[in-house]
Every structure is written in C-alpha cells, then in structure tokens.
Amino acid sequence: MLTYTHSHRVRYRECDPMGVVYHTHVLDWFEAARTEALREAGLPYKDVEASGIIMPVVEATVRYHASVFYDDLVEVECRIEGVGVRVPIDYQVRRQDEDDVLISGRVTLCFVDPERRRPVAPPEVFREALS
How many domains, in total, are found in the chain? Predict the structure, then answer.
C-alpha cells in the first residue's frame, strides 16, 4: 500500500463567485496527488509512458462533504492499496491540521497498451514499487 499527502493552497481561479471551490478542480487535485505519489514511489508517470504503457482514468467518483474556500490550505491524501489491470486510488481532502474530511473520492486507472488500446497487466516494476 502507498499513502501520500499532497498540499495545495486554493487559488482564486479555482473558485466560483461565492469563493467556494468549483467542483471540477478537485479532479485536478487528485491528479496532482497521484502523480506525486507515483513519483515518490519511483514511478514518474513520464517513465511509465516511456515504457510503452498508458494509464487512462476509467472511472471517477467525488463526494463533497463540506465547502472548501479560496486561500484554504488543503491536504489531499492519496491511497493506493492494490495493483491489478485496474488501479483504484482513494482520496480524502482536509484542511491542513484539521481532521474533518471535506471531499472524498476514488479514481480508477487502467494499464493500457497505447497501440492496441487494450488493457494489459501492470508492469512488474509497478507492482514491486507498490508492494
């Protein structure tokens, strides 16, 4: 299992006119957290693609428990528990130094051969890094 926490300060452009984070930006936060989590595990996404594998998102769910506001400093926790052809990744967003979960979600990626556009088994290096 891999757990990684990514810090993010909410930018003005990420908010609606009421100063609340616009819902679609949360998926960008999830992507930043998982990209950095993989980098920390020795699997920069750029290297994964260079090895001939792509990892498209095949499913995404987000649940909004409470509002997040302009200039909040949030922590996006990313947790990868298992690796198969599909890789489900769970997320929880909290304000820094607070326990309440403001946003939770799951994004599922799939290992795909870019030429055939078909799912493939995960590379061994990926399994090793996450075990």
Answer: 1
* Element of type H or E holding 117: none
Q: What is the DSSP pairing of strand 103-110 with strand 112-113?
A: unpaired
Supply the range of the domain harboring residue 68.
Answer: 2-130
Q: How far apart are CA 57 and CA 88, in angstroms?
A: 10
Q: Tokens representing 108?
A: 């599922």
CATH number, residue 122: 3.10.129.10
Rounded Cα distance between 69 and 98, Å, is: 14
Q: Say if CB 106 and CB 60 are below 8 A apart.
A: yes
Q: What is the pLDDT of residues 4-49, one digit of tens each?
A: 999 999 999 999 999 999 999 999 999 999 999 999 999 998 988 8
pLDDT category at 67 given cuts 50, 70, 90 is very high
- pTM beyond cutoff 0.90: yes
Retrieve residue 33's tokens. 């957290």
SS3 120: coil
For residue 91, which amino acid is it?
Answer: Y
Cβ atoms 10, 19 nearer than 8 A: no
